[in-house]
What we know:
Layout: H1 23-26, H2 35-60, H3 69-100, H4 104-121, H5 124-146, H6 158-173, H7 177-185, H8 192-221, H9 228-239, H10 249-253, H11 268-279
Helix pairs in contact: 2-3, 2-4, 2-5, 2-8, 3-7, 5-6, 5-7, 5-8
Amino acid sequence: MKQESYTPAEVAIQLRNRKHELTESLGRDWYDNHPFKTAWFNAMSITFPLGEQSFIDSVRRYADKITDPKLQREIRHFCGQEGVHRREHEHYNKTLCKERGYSLDYLEGRIARKIKESDAKLSSIQRLAVTAALEHITAILAERMLGEDVDVNGVIEPPMKELWSWHAAEEMEHKAVAFDVYRTVTKNKPYSEKMRKSTLRLATFFLIQDIVVGMIHMLRRDKKMWNLRVWIEGMQFLLGRQGFIRLSWPAYKDYFKDDFHPWQRDTRPLLENWEAGQLSPD
Length: 282
């Protein structure tokens, strides 16, 4: 049987039906009591439900092309994990907008329109390339969330840290599934590598655009939009020496290597540490 999955055998893509009570935290600036840091993550959450359904659809489209039983099983578990993520972030987003007075119709509506437009323009293989690219972004951001330096930028309230760490761990577990499907179905195709790399650039641009638009809406509603200190501290949070994006940059660039695979970054110790923390009585 031909090998198509390159996720390490000891990494199990587990289905965890987690539920989170977030109402109290979402009613305030839960990340270090800081409006920018909180809005950055809240705006990311807004992108997840529709985005993750798109990921599921794009990978399922090629499930019948896969012959490796291991990758077939990983596709099923990928879809299961993303389905729970979608449910939990739908709850998150509805609660957030209710507590803070944001417009969910506006925030999700523009994303829904963009996905509909892109689905009309892109082929199935291009949509799969988008999924692989965005899964790379979520995987490298997951490294920051599960790393020892997660608290360097401030304190995250426990219910929110639990949710984001759980999400990060599962993104790390299944980080190669869409990539392995893409590589399998485009093997020996002359466009494969060029499309893979160029798609990451485009996907990054549109993801950041969606996050920034969401943040602007939130900060404007919170009357913090024109607070210069909030923006200076926010840029330090993202791009400073210990910045969330700055620390992720080397891993991001790996995607442009010709021989790239997500598991070349061996993040098993991060998963093991997270799992050990789940068993701790603390």
